[in-house]
Recover the amino acids of this structure.
């Protein structure tokens, strides 16, 4: 074994290192670096050997007395580090930035170029500061709301301070929020919510008091607030000009950008795009989240369904009972393995498979029941599983819309033989591309799916059965890993939004999705049943409110499934729902103004009729 420590490239040209300073191995020093008395550079963090992590100090960097730079940190050219600064491992400081006296830059902080950080600032792990920002003395950032929680470390998310923002002295910035480009945060403020670009905010809690462009001289005390610009204050945006999307993945990205970039970057830098640690970690975490033994990443929700059907050896001549009120993929997977989908109508209130109608559809060829947990509400799994048990049938859950939903505390995967998830981007847990998952407590199913998703391979070039390329790629696993940590929080936000809708829409001639005892819903979409649905949809669209219809054509009336021989009237509840259902905007980041706006437009529509 090669035990030699990498040498530091010290003083390539003109480095001035005080005799009392310590420079550990594997520190790459640029030209004209000055390291003053009692500094330590390249100090190994806990659990890391000296020299194991490279430390990079650019050209013309000055590090004043008593500063401590951990191994794995990097400082760009021209940086100035004042006295008694601590910069932790994996922190990155861009060119020409300065770090004030006594400042703590925690690990994984990213500081851009030409940033000024004044004395005694404290930057929590994963704080990002973009180029040209100015951070006043004693600014503190935070990265977790509940530091003593056992899983706190999984939730770390520092704020992002955008390019050119100015943060006054003694400001506190909460975790996971964004201070917009060029924004100005008045001294002493406590910032608990994201700040728009070029907004001027101030106070405890910080509120918007104007814009940077409308700011007056701070010495003009007539206005009451030293920063306010009374005349040019921006008018509140007219509510009629509001745009509300059906879902907003950009808003979500703003809250996870930093973690996401690090996660994706890591994979690209490691050149490891298939399999790997990110996939196995995500699988373990998702299984734990679902309360099940096994989770397997696959290429889509559709392939998850097909792989489970194949793992259960369901194929030609078999029948699978399912719902016509779903996305085409549910039936497609059954047909793909050669079996026949047998539709059973749904309950009016939930759109889920009606258990009272299942028995009548069972024949000697029936092998499985495949309920869909539509809109984020579990199907009546207690009753469905009871029927399946009594009749010796398998149960495959289509959980594409139900990440984190539960009935009597049990999530998909612990009811049926296996649950199939879609991680399509817009789902409650969505990848940045196609991805899916199989969750099961049955080790044999897990083993078979693992084999089938990867060409039936038992060794790199040895296949025991003919399978597929239906793997989840590493990038998607990493993306999902970042999002999974927030899923419970996002689902809780969706439930709050649903409650707010129910309050604001009460008394209108629409049928709302209501909570039910024992069910924990996750509102993949918030679907109402509306009279004059098409006219309402147009009215909302004209008012800037996007809506959706899940699904306008029941499966038994799909041209692609005509060979099944169903006609209009075969499944009247599903057909009735297809005429009335309307999904209103629903996403975890949706704010109260938007909810009220959508509800006010629905109200306006019915009041004008
Ligand atoms: C109920 C249902 N089943 C299956 C699928 C298929 O998932 P994917 O698009 O990931 O293949 C979806 C996706 O929208 C779905 O909503």
């Amino acid at each position: 074994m090669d035990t030699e420590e990498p040498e530091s490239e010290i003083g390539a040209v003109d480095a001035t290192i005080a005799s009392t300073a310590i420079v550990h191995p594997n520190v790459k020093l640029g030209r004209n670096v000055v390291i003053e008395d009692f500094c330590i550079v390249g100090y190994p963090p806990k659990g890391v050997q000296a020299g194991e992590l490279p430390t990079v100090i650019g050209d013309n960097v000055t590090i004043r007395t008593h500063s401590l730079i951990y191994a794995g940190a990097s400082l760009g050219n021209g940086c100035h580090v004042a006295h008694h600064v601590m910069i932790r491992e994996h922190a990155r400081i861009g060119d020409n930035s300065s770090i004030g006296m006594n400042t703590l830059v925690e690990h994984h902080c990213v500081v851009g170029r030409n940033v000024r950080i004044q004395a005694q600032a404290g930057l929590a792990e994963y704080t990002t500061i973009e180029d040209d920002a100015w951070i006043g003395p004693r600014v503190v950032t935070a990265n977790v709301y509940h530091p003593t929680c056992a899983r706190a470390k999984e939730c770390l998310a520092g704020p992002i301070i955008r390019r050119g923002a100015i943060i006054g002295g003694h400001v506190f910035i909460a975790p996971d929020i964004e201070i917009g480009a060029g924004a100005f945060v008045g001294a002493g403020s406590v910032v608990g919510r994201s700040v728009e670009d070029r907004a001027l905010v101030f106070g405890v809690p910080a509120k918007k008091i104007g814009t940077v462009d409308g700011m007056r001289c701070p010495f003009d005390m007539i206005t009451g607030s030293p920063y306010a610009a009374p005349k040019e204050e921006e008018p509140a945006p007219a509510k009629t000009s509001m745009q509300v999307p059906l879902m907003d993945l950009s808003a979500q990205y703003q809250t996870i950008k930093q973690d996401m970039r690090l996660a994706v970057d890591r994979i690209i830098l490691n050149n490891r795009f298939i399999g790997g640690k990110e996939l196995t970690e995500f699988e373990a975490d998702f299984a734990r989240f679902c309360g099940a033994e096994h989770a397997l990443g696959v290429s889509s929700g559709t392939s998850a369904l097909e792989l489970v059907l194949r793992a259960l050896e369901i194929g030609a001549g078999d029948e699978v009972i399912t719902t016509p009120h779903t996305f085409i993929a549910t039936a497609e997977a059954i047909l793909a393995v050669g079996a026949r989908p047998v539709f059973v109508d749904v309950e009016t209130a939930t759109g889920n498979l009606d258990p009272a109608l299942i028995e009548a559809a069972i024949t000697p060829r029936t092998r499985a029941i495949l309920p869909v947990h539509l809109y984020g509400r579990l199907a009546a799994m207690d009753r469905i599983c009871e029927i399946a048990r009594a009749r010796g049938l398998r149960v495959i859950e289509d959980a594409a819309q139900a990440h984190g939903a539960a009935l009597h505390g049990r999530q998909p995967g612990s009811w049926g033989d296996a649950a199939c998830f879609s991680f399509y981007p817009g789902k409650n847990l969505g990848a940045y591309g196609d991805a899916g998952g199989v969750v099961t407590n049955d080790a044999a199913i897990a083993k078979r799916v693992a084999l089938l998703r990867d060409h039936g391979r038992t060794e790199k070039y040895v296949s025991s059965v003919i399978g597929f390329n239906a793997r989840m790629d590493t990038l998607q696993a990493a993306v999902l890993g970042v999002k999974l940590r927030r899923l419970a929080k996002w689902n809780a936000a969706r439930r709050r939004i649903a409650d707010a809708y129910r309050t604001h829409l009460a008394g209108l001639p629409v049928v709302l999705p209501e909570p039910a005892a024992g069910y924990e819903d996750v509102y993949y979409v918030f679907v109402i049943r509306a009279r004059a649905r098409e006219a309402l949809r147009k009215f909302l669209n004209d008012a800037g409110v996007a809506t959706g219809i899940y699904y306008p054509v029941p499966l038994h009336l799909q041209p692609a499934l005509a060979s099944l021989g169903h006609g209009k009237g075969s499944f009247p509840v599903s057909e009735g729902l297809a005429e009335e259902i309307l999904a209103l905007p629903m996403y975890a980041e949706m704010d109260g103004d938007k909810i009220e706006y959508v509800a006010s437009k629905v109200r306006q529509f019915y009041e004008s009729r």
